[in-house]
Design brief:
The structure holds three protein chains of three kinds. Chain A is an alpha+beta fold. Chain A contains 21 helices and 22 strands. The chains are: A alpha+beta, B alpha/beta, C mainly beta.
Chain lengths: ~700, ~120, ~160
């Protein structure tokens, strides 16, 4: 039977790219001086499995190059050669080359053979050097170098990698991990590393709950069934993953039928957040405690299928709320029962909706993972010493948001490296450490994801910003600006087309673009800076693009949804704070600001209850750092709404971001606050902020 | 009587389990405080073992841990010893092992907690 | 263009075609049955700002936002009323779903190609691009409409012209 292998190509490419990501993460850890056998093994396994896959699919150039790389890695693994920064460098570039080759193969383009040959020569040269005989002591734990010479052979030891995290009731139900591991040890040689991160002090520990977790390597040719058998009774009461050691991708290619459970690169590359209380760990343990999403096997599902699911669930939610409204006025015994059943249905619906939303969620590590490399490379090039700290990289957010947040974040981190962190001598002179620190911090807060980029560099110079803004005509001298305002000027269009166009961040993309990107995601960006001590940029993002927290506002008979993220405050207007301006408009004085007033009824040409500003409400809304007052009749409830596109069956309409269904089944339109604000910029701001726009 | 020191724990003496009855209860007159693990350190005794270890960890140290009499131990028992060791480390209460029974040694090895049970020199 | 022959997409490849016929200001019209998704009673629409008056607004059709068009207003007929007899025909046009308000649905008729006469040129003033032709059955004439062309009109912009 001739098997059509092309159908597996995409799986191979995808898995290879993921594997290369984890290889890069491991290499960067190596370069940070953390030489340990497990890291080198990880790198070796990536090379080995890509080589295997490439050979299977007859991608000969990839296979040939990877073979050379593998040989060098095997020397490192066996301790024949010591890890040096130069080697890490070449390995990093080899990873890039493999990625490029795979990409070219994937898109049926020509491979840059000359570049590959050069790199190969470098690898050969390194291997030609006499191996530094003394193995690095920390690599000693690696398997014997027996098969090093014929590196083509599958050198990885057969065996299983087991991750075992007992649940709350495991011990109480008589399942003893000690017995389980003892049984495993009767099957083959075991290497056990424990995760004691959850062990609390004796005074608070529950003596009957196992809070230890284990990673166990079980070596030898052992049936999966035999391994599973050991866990038979405990299976339902623990988190358990059993993975074949070594070439997972190779196994997939050979068994052909099924994509192997992919080891998530996110967890592999979880470079950050090692538990602070773990210094006592055995040194060989890869102590970075695995994040909560223990890899219990995964499948690939196309995003379209998930969106279909999400759509159907959205419709169910609407139907359910229509039912509830219909049931509300009913009377009698059965009506009560109906209502309570409907209430139950509603709870289930919410749970279902949340589960489906979670399917679309990915940890932000997918974006954060690229930064160790970026910081390292750029820092080196600029001669700056920079340490990157990443926290909260398991924070999850919607895939769509995730995809769009990457570029803005890269821009911000680049800015921090380029303009934020000072040169080492400058830092020392200022009494700081030689090393600068850039931190990426992600966390959830009230239905939003917050991402912060912080550096301990020089901070923003307010005088400089103001001077530049004056030069560019973004502000005029007579305006007295608050500190916040001044900082926000860096987001103004035309500000950061810097005069010092450095190779790093001055690529013509300014902070205005960053802000626009964030706003388009329904997010919000803020900057804090203390001169001499550094800056923090805080980005607030919605968890998802499919659902929005909305404030319902009524104008006449129509109900509109205003995204809560853009509402600053809502106020009752008093006469003395309203001024007429030439040209027929009105502005409203809010503290030191004059905000243009947008009457929703005239913007949308509908009949309102009130036309006098004193009778209605003014919602102060903000986008792009600009504010307007939105005049409405009254505020109604706040609710989460499912966003529907108007364009699916219709077209984009000025001032509208989409539509949603209300509980009564009617359609309500969602306001596009940035769009409305752009149309109603105050004459003052128009004059100040975009002098060349007209 | 899993844990026995110079301060007897009466509640535990009432226990009639045969393994426990067989456990010796040596009383030492060492200047260091001795922590003695009883013959059986399993989930059955876990609550009592915890109280005992809690009391020991509150001492100023240095402590000597005697694990020679351990005949039966399970994960719950090992985990408490680990928590005890970590508490000591946190409070700076030094400890050292006088001896460990073969059973105890094997359990520590299988559960991979050896390094957690060594007070840094 | 204004005298496009009846070789329109709706008639291609079949000897007979079925049309759903409906009433608009006393005249009978027909649309290809295959474009009809469902027929609904009148329900409240949500007005969309900055749109012509014949676009009544949008409704929620099982979780999908569907625009509703009043052909009586579109064709500048006399006053349009909305009552319990008002009917909305939901049509699938290309990839889009659109609702069309009519005075009432009459019948489904089957016409052979020979029974369909091309639309005559009505002079420069009238836009007849959306008319396939006139179908005559039982001595009565129906105006057969090409829904896609109707929706693709510049002012409608509901179907990308590129489709054609």
């Amino acid at each position: 039977m001739s098997l059509d292998l092309t159908q597996f190509h995409e799986i191979f490419f995808e898995e290879s790219f993921e594997a290369l990501d984890s290889m890069e993460a491991a290499l960067l850890k190596l370069s940070a001086g953390e030489v340990d056998a497990e890291l080198i093994n990880t790198i070796f396994r990536v090379a080995h499995s890509i080589k295997g896959g490439a050979a299977t699919f007859a991608f000969t150039e990839v296979a040939a190059f990877t073979h050379v790389l593998e040989t060098l890695l095997d020397q490192l693994r066996s301790g024949k050669r010591q890890v040096r920064p130069e080697i890490v460098d070449v390995l990093l570039r080899s990873g890039d080359a493999m990625r490029a080759m795979l990409l070219a193969t994937q898109h049926k383009e020509a491979i840059d053979s000359a570049g590959v040959a050069k790199l190969r020569a470098e690898l050969d040269r390194i291997m030609g050097e006499a191996g530094t005989a003394a193995a690095a002591p920390s690599v000693a734990a690696a398997p014997a170098p027996a098969a090093a010479a014929k590196a083509g052979a599958p050198a990885a030891t057969p065996g299983w990698r087991i991750q075992f995290i007992p649940g709350v009731d495991l011990l109480r139900h008589g399942n003893d991990p000690l017995r389980i591991i003892r049984e495993l040890s009767s099957l083959g040689k075991v290497r056990v590393s424990v995760d004691a991160a959850r062990v609390t002090s004796l005074s608070t520990i529950d003596p009957e709950v196992c809070v230890l977790g284990w990673k166990i390597e079980l070596l030898g040719e052992i049936d999966r069934a035999a391994v599973q058998n050991v866990f038979e009774w405990a299976e339902t009461e623990c988190e358990l993953s059993i993975e074949r050691m070594g070439g997972e991708a190779t196994a997939a290619a050979q068994s052909a039928a099924m994509p192997a459970p992919t080891s998530t690169p996110a967890t592999e590359a979880a470079t950050a957040a090692p538990h602070a209380d773990e210094p006592q760990h055995p040194p060989r343990a890869e102590s970075a405690a695995r994040t909560a999403n223990a890899d219990g096997g995964s499948i690939r599902v196309s995003i379209e299928k998930i969106d279909e699911l999400l759509n159907s669930v959205g419709e169910l939610v609407i139907t359910q709320s229509v039912l509830s409204q219909l049931a509300a006025p009913l009377e009698g015994r059965e009506a009560g029962e109906l209502r309570s059943a409907l209430a139950q249905l509603e709870r289930h619906m919410r749970a279902l909706q949340e589960s489906v939303m979670r399917v679309r969620m990915l940890p932000i590590s997918f974006v954060f993972n690229r930064f160790p490399r970026l910081v390292r490379d750029l820092g080196q090039r600029l001669g700056k010493k920079i340490e990157l700290k990443v926290t909260g990289d398991s924070t999850e957010l919607d895939k769509t948001v995730l995809e769009k947040i990457g570029d803005p974040l890269v821009h911000l981190v680049r800015n921090s490296i380029d303009h934020g962190i000072e040169m080492p001598d400058v830092r020392v002179a200022a009494g700081k450490t030689e090393h600068g620190t850039i931190s990426l911090h992600a966390y959830h807060k009230g239905g939003n994801v917050i991402v912060e980029v912080t550096d301990d560099g020089g901070g923003l110079r307010k005088d400089k910003i103001l001077k530049k803004a004056l030069e560019r005509g973004l502000v005029t001298n007579e305006v007295e600006l608050s500190e916040e305002r001044i900082l926000n000027l860096i987001f103004a269009p035309g500000f950061s087309t810097a005069d010092v166009v450095s190779d790093v961040s001055g690529r013509g993309v300014g902070m205005d673009v960053v802000r626009r990107n964030i706003n388009e995601l329904g997010g919000h960006i803020q900057i804090f800076s203390t001169q001499g001590q550094g800056s923090t940029i805080r980005i607030r993002l919605p968890l998802t693009l499919a659902i929005l927290d909305g404030q319902l506002a009524r104008v006449g008979k129509e109900v509109y949804v205003v995204p809560i993220v853009s509402i600053v405050e809502t106020i009752q207007v008093t006469r003395e704070r309203v001024n007429a301006v030439a040209g027929g408009g009105q502005v409203f004085r809010l503290r030191d600001d004059y905000l243009p007033i947008v009457r929703l009824h005239s913007l949308f040409d509908i009949d309102p209850d009130h036309t006098d500003l004193l009778d209605g409400l003014l919602m102060i809304v903000e986008a792009d750092g600009k504010r307007v007052g939105l005049f409405v009749d009254e505020l109604m409830s706040q609710q989460q709404v499912v966003i529907k596109s108007l364009e699916t069956n219709f077209k984009q309409v000025m001032g509208l971001a989409g539509a949603t269904m209300l509980g009564d089944g009617r359609v309500a339109l969602i306001l596009d606050i940035p769009g409305i604000i752009t149309r109603f910029q105050s004459p003052q701001e128009r004059g100040l902020q975009t002098p060349r726009a007209a | 009587m899993i844990p026995v020191t110079e301060v007897p724990a009466p509640a535990l003496v009432l226990d009639e389990s045969p393994t426990r009855a067989a456990a010796p209860a040596p009383v030492h007159s060492n200047p260091n405080t001795r922590v003695t693990l009883g013959a059986s350190c399993t989930i059955q005794e876990a609550v009592a073992l915890r109280s005992y270890l809690l009391a020991q960890a509150a001492q100023s140290g240095p402590l000597e841990i005697d694990g020679a009499s351990v005949q039966v131990i399970d994960t719950a028992g090992v985990q408490l010893v680990v928590a005890f060791a970590l508490d000591c480390l946190e409070k700076g209460v030094a400890y050292k092992w006088l001896s460990r029974s073969e059973t105890l040694e094997k359990a520590i090895d299988l559960l991979g907690v050896g390094a957690l049970l060594e007070y840094p020199a | 263009m204004s005298t496009s022959p009846p070789a329109s997409s709706v008639l291609d490849g079949a000897d007979t075609q079925q049309f759903l016929t409906f009433k608009l200001a006393g005249e009978e019209y027909g649309v290809g049955i295959l474009t009809v998704q469902e027929i609904r009673g009148w329900s409240r629409v949500t007005k969309v700002p900055h749109t012509p008056d014949w676009l009544l607004g949008v409704i929620n059709l099982r979780g999908v936002v569907v625009p509703i068009i009043d052909l009586r207003l579109k064709f500048n007929f006399a006053n349009a009323e909305y009552n319990e007899f008002t009917v909305v025909i939901i049509l699938t046009v290309a990839t889009r779903v659109v609702g069309v308000v009519v005075d009432g649905v009459s019948d489904v008729i089957t016409l052979a190609a020979a029974q369909i006469k091309p639309a005559p040129s009505l002079g420069t003033g009238a836009d007849t691009r959306h008319i396939i032709g006139f179908g005559t059955l039982d001595e009565r004439m129906r105006i057969l409409m090409d829904v896609e062309k109707l929706m693709a009109g510049a002012d409608m912009g509901l179907v990308d012209e590129a489709i054609h």
